[in-house]
Amino acid sequence: MFVSSGLILNWYYAVRIGLDMKGYWKSVFRQVLPMIGVCLLGLWAWNALRLNPSWGTLLLGIVIYALVFGLAAYFLSTNDYERGLVKGFARRFAKRG
């Protein structure tokens, strides 16, 4: 399955269609690395804090994870164009408030 859908299709996209598959996978890994780091940080924090499992703890963990992941993704895996889009959205959102 990996060979047919992974390697062969990537070769086809690169050679026959002319897509930059190396650049694509570089971009994918650049986006996955912050997620892995945030997950490891969250796992460490969960074990270090030894919080009682409850719905409130789960909700708090989700909010903290989303904030930390969003910041990590913004600073580590976005390019200047994408940052500009986020800044433009934030400016429009701030003007409404």
Automatic annotation (TrEMBL):
Q: Name the domain of life this protein comes from.
A: Bacteria
Q: Which UniProt keywords apply?
A: Membrane, Transmembrane, Transmembrane helix
Q: Which residues cross the membrane?
A: 32-49, 55-77
- Name of the protein this chain belongs to: Polysaccharide biosynthesis protein C-terminal domain-containing protein
